[in-house]
Amino acid sequence: MKSIKILAFGNSYSVDALTYLTKIFHSAGYGEVILGHICDGGCNINQHWSNVDDTMESFHPAHPDVVAMDGTAGCSISTNGVSKSTEGKTLKERYINTIAALEWDFVTIQHGPNHVEQVETYSYLPRLLAFIKEHLKSDKTKIIYHSVWKYNDNIAQYNSTAFQYDKIIDITKNTVMINPEFCGIIPSATFRQNLMSSFLTDKDIARDYGHMGLTLGRYALGLLWYVALTGGSVDDVTYVPCPDDVSEETKETFKEKWGHVHLEITEADMLVVKEAIENALASPYEITKSKYK
Question: How many CB atoms are closer than 10 A to CB 244?
């Protein structure tokens, strides 16, 4: 029985990545799938560090006027889809207990989508990496960088997609991946742009100007994680989400906000997804235009 254990440091973008990941791995022949998640909405790398540094005040990025010595991140571990919160008197203790809970195969780290193009918000990355390594149970755990895209990257007043993407790639190469602790990358920022060079639009893959869509977007991101972490193929995966996997309340919420929710996943969609994954992993720092127009 194959098993995999992944711990993700993240925010709502990692929620999108993990939504279908258990079912993806199960359908690819994995009997045990354990997903740890240290998640704070909008949280960037420096904010994750502030959650564990006893000398710094922690705050929720959506409410910067509210500060406390115990931040807002949730820490949990899901085994085959059944989740349990990590216990601990302080947030730092919950971080430590989550990291040290298991011999993780992978630990992924990502930045906050609102600050991903701002290099000064990465300054505590070496300290966060040292903290993680200090509390890992296994020296075989691989630390992977999940490269995310800028929220609102396709709205004109937030500058052009190309401008934001180039800055993100520069930081990824010259600030993040120079840290020797990283042994790989999940190139989601490039993957997203590869997808949108096809006939698929932002509205097809997203549920707003940043978060991935409820079926196709989240599923595509999960498939990228599966292939990037295992070296497997999209063809290994038999599970495909359908509209029934999304609650009626959620459908209505995002239909109201967005005007369009792409829920049915077609064979044509999957041709684009597979191509975008292959191209992103082959060229993680460069957009590859799709042949599916």
Answer: 9
Which pLDDT tens digit goes with each residue over 234-264?
999 999 999 899 888 888 877 766 665 678 8
- pLDDT tier for residue 204 given thresholds of 50, 70 and 90: confident
Single-letter amino acid, residue 77: I
First to last CA, the chain: 41
pTM for the whole thing?
A: 0.92
What tokens does 272 get?
Answer: 């684009």
In degrees to the nearest 10, what's the CA dihedral of 77, 270, 243, 27?
-40
CA distance 80 to 26: 8
Identity at 170, one-letter amino acid code: D
Residue 18 main-chain phi, psi, to 5 deg? -90, -10
For residue 65 the two structure tokens come to 């006027």
Torsion of CA 251, 193, 8, 28, to 10 degrees: 80
Token representation of residue 218:
């989240």
Domain ranges of the chain: 2-282
Write down the pLDDT at residue 259: 62
| Spatial contact of 146 and 108, defined as CB atoms under 8 Å apart | yes
By C-alpha distance, which of 234, 237, 254 is closest to 246? 254
Residue with tokens 């930081």: 171
Q: Is the pLDDT of residue 62 over 70?
A: no
**Which residues, at least 6 apart from 163, have a Cβ–Cβ distance to it below 8 Å?**
none
Closest C-alpha among 6, 9, 71 to residue 32: 6
Backbone angles phi, psi at 4, to 5 degrees: -145, 145
- Nearest Cα neighbor of 183 from 248, 106, 125 is 106
In CATH, 2-282 is 3.40.50.1110: yes
